[in-house]
Amino acid sequence: MTDLNCQTETIGTHERPEYALRRRFCTLKENRSGEAWSNLLHAHWPGWRDWYLARGATTAASESESTRALRRYMPEMIGLIDRLSNNLPDDPVLREFLTFWCPPRYLVSCTQAVSSDHLGPFLMRNYDLDPELNEMTLLRSNWRGKTVMGMVEGLSGLSDGMNEDGLAVSLSFGGRIVSGRGFGIPLLIRYVLETCIDVQDAVEALRTIPCHMSYNVTLTDRHGAHATVFLSPDRPAMVRPTPWATNHQLGVEWPRHGRMSATLERAQCLTRLYSDGNPHENALRTVFLNPPFYSANFRVGYGTVFTALYRPSSRSVQLVWKDGQSHRWQMNKFETTSIEIEYTDAGSAVLSHQSQELSKSRMKT
To answer: Is CATH 3.60.60.10 correct for 8-364?
Structure first.
């Protein structure tokens, strides 16, 4: 079993004046929800629980309401939520949290784009957040009979991922402060990958499920189809053929966040990049690992935690850090891994990498 003690170490300013944070990135795999997710839960639930309750979440009436909402909009997920919740049967807060119905507001500032080259279609994304707040876990699961591989967000949800059908999906914040009655986006990403087979299927699902905040969902599949869906709590979902998304929808509606995230600057760069056709992987990666796309502003909570590349044709994902190091996993040959990452004012860097399965084989010999 992979060590889930994803430790955080901040180097004191009296020893080293620049920002420095060390995190352990983990990859996990399991079929039906079991020991891997249970360990993930116990590692991260205390922090999520405090966050959830500190922002005014309740349990009694809202637990019943969230169950009704789940049954109405995503009935396929009820059995899974029940199984996950049974890890802590005496904690009613956990089940309510896992439904993601009307959660507290939160946002991430990300960039995502789909393209194609000689290896087929791909989806690339920068995930921007405070690295202290991310679960730092890539999970390959088969919880409902379909293999799903993605970056964990909110314990059972995902920020991005791909399923065995070759459907890849990613989220970015939509740049609007409004919130309403709906589900948190990590569960929607999980739902799409658990139940859909291609872009058309996913778009139809996203049109029918209310989202509690504004998010942009970019999708591609093994056939090369793509779409970006603008989700909002106060207006119908809008489907666009645009192969990328930053942090606004129809325009910048939250000026302060727009300036901070440089959403327009990133959009203008992508418009120019795609004007000559689909950029290949290396061209897009170069853009994503440099300003205004890449951010090392970790000390204020909005740095680029990782860059992910999903390849539907090979069912693979590659994670890249600022120092140029990268690691790749295939869905059908998934290796559990522990990687030590350091985040500084210069960006992210891999300090060490250890295959858990290689360690196990050495122990046996």
So the answer is: yes
